[in-house]
Automatic annotation (TrEMBL), chain A:
It is a multi-pass membrane protein. It comes from Nonomuraea harbinensis. It comes from the Bacteria. Keywords: Cell membrane, Membrane, Transmembrane, Transmembrane helix, Transport. Coiled coil: none annotated. This is ABC transporter permease. The chain crosses the membrane at residues 9-29, 101-122, 134-157, 177-197, 235-261, 281-307. Its main location: membrane. Pfam families: BPD_transp_1, BPD_transp_1_N.
UniProtKB/TrEMBL annotation, chain B:
This is Dipeptide/oligopeptide/nickel ABC transporter permease/ATP-binding protein. It comes from the Bacteria. The chain crosses the membrane at residues 21-39, 78-103, 115-134, 189-211, 245-264. It is a multi-pass membrane protein; Peripheral membrane protein. Residues 308-559 form the ABC transporter domain. Residues 76-265 form the ABC transmembrane type-1 domain. NCBIfam families: oligo_HPY (TIGR01727). It is found in: Cell membrane; Membrane. SUPFAM superfamilies: MetI-like, P-loop containing nucleoside triphosphate hydrolases. Belongs to the ABC transporter superfamily. It comes from Nonomuraea harbinensis. Signal peptide: none annotated. Keywords: ATP-binding, Cell membrane, Membrane, Nucleotide-binding, Transmembrane, Transmembrane helix, Transport.
Length: 314, 637
């Protein structure tokens, strides 16, 4: 088990280095000059030169990268051109919001998608399956931010049960926190749940066609036992893969949904940074996101090892 | 499959044509928006803001008094254009790159795959936004960024197909001539990659529409005042309190268009690979029907009631809408107590299905009927699933062909062995474990207690098959069905497994039905023999009699192709041709197409199984005492 963790981490470090390097140099290639954004329209050449010098943009790209990397290793990701706030501080403030929504969406999608998918998979080709599959197809087509808007209209504007805007940190109480993330989680989790249901269904169908299911039935085991004890465990590997992939897409999806609920999460930070060309912030966002994804990948690998004895080092 | 049947299948699905028509309407609207739109999209009547639908404005107006319907039509342009840009870029980059990488292999391929993996592991939207940060916002630029990410998906797909094609070409030996490899691959890959690429493209269109709307909503895509479904929703958010209706038109436009793309994609996928949903989990037990043929095929054991008596067992599968074909038709036989009966035939003859039908293990769309299946005095034809389940495991054990597939890879063999002991036998965990150790000892597996904790992949094929046998015997059944017990095994261990089976039968005193295409197995083990061809029994009798004096040309052909009957060097004569597909054998003798003794009369009407004292045969010319001496009959053809 520990060997797996260590191997993974050995892969993780170069991966983060690769991602940050790529972002940095692609950013440097960009035709857009951050200095012009700081100054507003039609600056004089002297102004531009002065700002570029202040921002360190006049130096060779390699030197800029060296400086950034040296800082990054110490945990200093630079600071925003606009607010002057250290990037790490901004991100530490934003991350809990996005992670809360990701988690809420994940929990919801699993609660919806897993039972629906299993149910449909066991009834493949019958009426119940067709109805579920139909609902799933519709669910997949609903853009999450539109659903968010509809939820706001229904439960915040019309019924006033949930807040339309704002995030309450968990430190202010679990109840208020849950209250604030309920609508965004539903908006995020629905499409994700639909995807999960679809994949779970096909995983179940695939497993039921395996010979070892026939063996278990030939042993005289009751159907519920064959499905409940053996089938679900076998279907778990593809399902876990989908869930892990889903975490990434929920993380990305929360960028939009946050915006709809006016929450200051990763999404707002990213979008503001992109619209204002704030290079250090963009860089920081990507590096932290990559780190989060690597952690998720690690959790996924560990659960694989638990589910599938073949990859478990003996 | 021809283009014609494909088209018919496409139309047979109800959803696909509807989705197709809807998409066509969206495309037309987008193209003709300047002509169709009743108002200009970006200038509004400021005196009439936020109106509900009316005769003048079918979908009302937004907060700037702009006509929502007109903006919706122009929004379709933005959506489709955006998706098109992304897809075109994806294919232009991904297709050639995938072909080249798959063809070259080596380190460029490895590096590219690492990058692709990293891109795929990151949140899609975040990567897209980062790329937009580099290219700058705007509809075309942002969708170009999306196209680059899509290209990674296309690349992976195409590369996978190239690798598969390479493999196949090596296997078929087409790749030995090195210099034309490129062209060969090209010819081979494109038709293979086309179906999945088409499905992938429809999926990219669907997500592309959502991504465009998302980016435009965020202000990174279509820039106001240009209309896009995404920024229409941003407007709707701004006026959520005073004009909630605005949220509906653009949202439904996105949803329906995406839905149509997805349904269309599903329809296309269905054309190329139909999802198999049938499962043995839903297997129906045999239905009871009245007997049509009088005579049992097998040798009638004198006196004692047989353990198993089967009459008129048939199994059919659907071949098309409302059509079924028999894969097993009218099989009748008896299996005496402590006897070993061999069932032989080529693959496709229906022998395994016959055995599974006895236990109600024919997968879902299959339908089983029988006049009687009497097992140890109980009637199984017409019995409920629950009654059949009582027989399975407890009274009938099954050994399957490939132990490494038949054993569950995710559980230790200990779990798999003890599960039925505990659930059916009511043993405690400790008792079940002790019994499992006994069972492994019984099948001569050493260090039994330790091996219980091992997973199937830690066993060799021969050892795994012993485990399988132990599982089948765990409840001391009266009948053991061995379905090709040695076929998947290494030649060197086949003999050991057969010896084990023979010894165990003697020890336990059970009856055995052994299914095989290898007459050697039957010769070694069985007392009686049944030969099956295209779903029918064609010859039955004692092993000794059939081996000495086969009566059916097919039996003779099978025997002639046994290595031990041809001691001298030379190629084994095989029966030319293959078993006809169910329902395609024609009205007469099902073997007629491959039979060297065929006469016109053979092809006219079904041939009955004729009883001949010490067995039976299904051949018109059986009375002529045909001689099959030598194998000229087979080699001559
Ligand atoms: S009935 Fe005719 S075709 Fe069929 S096996 Fe006999 S001789 Fe051959």
């Amino acid at each position: 088990m520990w060997r797996l963790v260590i191997t993974r981490l050995c892969v993780a470090v170069p991966m983060i280095v690769m991602v940050s390097t790529a972002t940095f140099f692609l950013g440097a290639l960009s035709p857009i000059d951050p200095a012009e954004f700081v100054l507003g329209p039609d600056p004089t050449q002297e102004q531009v030169d002065r700002v570029r010098q202040e921002m360190g943009l006049d130096r060779p790209v390699l030197a800029q990268f060296q400086e950034w990397a040296a800082g990054a290793v110490r945990g200093d990701l630079g600071s925003s051109v606009f607010t002057g706030e250290p990037v790490s501080a901004t991100l530490i403030r934003a991350l809990p919001v996005t992670l809360s929504l990701t988690l809420g969406g994940l929990v919801l999608s699993v609660l919806l998608g897993l039972p629906a998918g299993i149910w449909a998979g066991l009834r493949a080709g019958r009426l119940g399956d067709r109805v579920t599959t139909g609902l799933v197809t519709v669910g997949q087509a609903v853009p999450n931010f539109w659903l968010a808007l509809l939820l706001i209209l229904a439960f915040a504007v019309h019924f006033r049960i949930f807040p339309a805007v704002g995030y309450v940190p968990i430190s202010e109480g679990v109840g208020p926190w849950l209250h604030s993330i309920t609508l965004p989680s539903i908006a995020l989790g629905t499409a994700a749940g639909a995807v999960l249901a679809r994949q779970t269904r096909s995983a179940i169908i695939g497993v039921l066609q395996q010979e070892y299911i026939r063996t278990a039935l030939a042993q005289g085991l009751p159907r519920w036992r064959v499905v409940g004890k053996f089938g679900l465990r076998n279907a778990a590997v593809p399902i876990v893969t989908v869930i892990a992939f889903e975490v990434a897409s929920l993380f990305g999806g929360s960028i939009v949904v946050e915006r709809m609920f006016s929450m200051r999460g990763f999404g707002s930070v990213t979008i503001d940074a992109v619209l204002r060309r704030d290079p250090d912030v963009i860089q920081g966002v990507i590096v932290i996101a990559a780190a989060v994804m690597i952690v998720i990948q690690l959790v996924l690998d560990l659960s694989y090892a638990w589910l599938n004895p073949k990859v478990r080092p003996s | 499959m021809t283009a014609g049947t494909r088209l018919r299948r496409l139309l047979a699905q109800k959803a696909t044509p509807v989705a197709g028509l809807f998409l066509a309407a969206v495309v037309l609207t987008a193209l003709l928006a300047p002509l169709l739109a009743p108002y200009p999209p970006d200038t509004g009547d400021l005196l009439r803001p936020s109106e509900l639908p009316s005769a003048g404005h079918w979908l009302g107006t937004d907060s700037l008094g702009r006509d929502v319907l007109s903006r919706l039509m122009y929004g379709a342009r933005a959506a489709l254009l955006a998706a098109l840009v992304a897809v075109v870029i994806a294919v232009l980059i991904g297709l050639p790159l995938g072909l080249v990488l798959g063809y070259l292999g080596g380190w460029p391929d490895r590096i590219a795959m690492r990058v692709a993996e990293a891109v795929n592991a990151m949140p899609f939207l975040l990567v897209a936004i980062t790329l937009i940060a580099i290219l700058g916002p705007g509809l075309i630029k942002s969708m170009a960024a999306v196209g680059v990410i899509y290209a990674v998906m296309v690349l992976r797909l195409v590369r996978g197909e190239v690798l598969a094609a390479r493999e196949e070409l090596y296997v078929t030996g087409a790749l030995v001539v090195g210099n034309r490899t490129g062209r060969l691959l090209w010819r081979h890959v494109l038709p293979n990659v086309a179906p999945s690429l088409i499905v992938q493209i429809t999926a990219m269109f669907a997500t592309g529409i959502i991504v465009e709307a998302t980016l435009s909503y965020l202000g990174l895509g279509t820039q106001p005042p240009d209309a896009s479904w995404g920024n229409m929703l941003a407007d709707a958010q701004a006026s959520a309190y005073d004009h909630p209706f605005l949220a509906l038109p653009a949202g439904f436009a996105i949803m329906l268009t995406v839905l149509a793309f997805n349904l269309f994609g599903d329809g296309v996928r269905d054309l190329f690979a139909r999802e198999a949903t049938g499962s043995v989990l839903h297997a129906a037990p045999a239905r009871r029907v009245t007997q049509v043929t009088e005579r049992a095929g097998g040798p009638e054991p004198a006196g004692e009631e047989p353990l198993l008596r089967v009459r008129d067992l048939s199994v059919s599968f659907p071949t098309g809408p409302g059509e079924r074909a028999d894969v097993v038709s009218g099989v009748s036989f008896d299996l005496g107590r402590r006897r070993m009966l061999g069932l032989v035939g080529e693959s496709g003859s229906g022998k395994s299905v016959t055995a599974m039908a006895l236990l109600g293990l024919v997968p879902d769309p299959g339908r089983v009927t029988a006049a009687t299946i009497t097992f140890d005095g109980r009637e199984l034809a017409g019995a409920s699933g629950r009654e059949l389940r009582r027989i399975r495991g407890r009274e009938v054990g099954v050994v399957f062909q490939d132990p490494l597939k038949a054993l569950n890879p995710a559980f230790t063999i200990g779990t798999q062995l003890t599960e039925p002991l505990r659930v059916l036998g009511g043993m405690s965990a400790r008792e079940a474990r002790a019994r499992a150790v006994e069972l492994l000892d019984l099948v001569r597996i050493h260090r039994a207690a330790e091996r219980l904790g091992h997973y199937p992949h830690q066993f060799s094929g021969g050892m795994a098959q012993r485990v399988m046998i132990a599982m089948a015997l765990s409840m001391t059944p009266k009948l053991l069905i061995a379905d090709e017990p040695t076929t998947a095994l290494d030649v060197t261990v086949q003999g050991e497994v057969l010896d084990l089976l023979r010894d165990l039968q003697a020890e336990i005193g059970m009856s055995v039905l052994v299914i095989t295409h290898d007459q050697g197995v039957v010769a070694d083990l069985a007392d009686d023999l049944m030969v099956m061809y295209a779903g029918e029994l064609v010859e039955t009798g004692s092993v000794r009699r059939v081996f000495e004096r086969p009566r059916h040309p097919y039996t003779a052909g099978l025997l002639a192709s046994m290595p031990r009957n041809r001691p001298r060097a030379g190629r084994l004569p095989a029966i030319p041709g293959t078993v006809p597909h169910p329902g395609e054998a024609g009205p007469g003798c099902r073997f007629a197409a491959r039979c060297p003794f065929v006469i016109d009369r053979c092809r006219e009407a079904p041939v009955e199984l004729t009883a001949l004292g010490d067995g039976a045969a299904r051949c018109l010319r059986v009375a002529e005492q045909l001689t099959f001496d030598g194998t000229e009959a087979w080699t001559a053809r």
